[in-house]
Amino acid sequence: MDLGIAGRKAIVCASSKGLGRACARALAEAGCAIVLNGRDAEALARTARELREATGVKVGEILGDLDDPATRSELIAACPDADILVNNNGGPPFKPLDQITREDILKGVESNMLTPIALVQALAPGMAERKFGRVINITSSSVRAPIAGLDVSSGARAGLTAFLASAARLFARHNVTINSIQPGSFETDRQKAGLARTAAQRGVTMDAALAESKARIPAGRFGDPAEFGALCAFLAGAQAGFITGQNILIDGGAFPGAF
Q1: Do the Cβ atoms of 154 and 140 come closer than 8 Å?
Q2: Helices (H), 3-101
């Protein structure tokens, strides 16, 4: 499918690896110029080089932590007329409820709620003026079905989802959409780290923890980041203008509800 966004400009946050990288790759393959962001200089440079070589599109790089206002300002300055914004940021670490501090909560809210809101506030009005814009927030399946130990992540991302719900309706008449994608278990470094923690806590091998985790997913496997990227690119496409204010779950059927 031709997504109709060749020549568009996209900012993809936290995109040097993982799901953010997959989104950047899919958008680049659709013909978008990309501005990448990441905290690891080596990984960021490698991803930028690979995207340029694979797709031939223009790829910019902004190194830094998105929670730093200076990094956000640099990112916006690199692409002030962005047509597409993919909000993504590192998630809070796993922590039992009785060990979560006030500082943990504030940091989680800063990273996974306030930072993406600030980027939407900065870029969505310009999208509205130009009559095209797509905002895709990478949140988590834990927004829909909270996971013990990821309470800070679930709370902050649920806050982002609720906060932007009215904005999605406000901007819709200007052909600017705001949607969220809720990923389940994907083949990423974060997923591997979680499995290693589970294996250590339970005193089992990584292979055993991996098999048990996959067995809980009806699809019988973890998601391929490329599948996630393809969904992101579709939501960014010209044909997705009638989809807004939605939270799209992509988890291999792990969530058991009908709605």
Answers
A1: yes
A2: 18-29, 41-55, 69-78
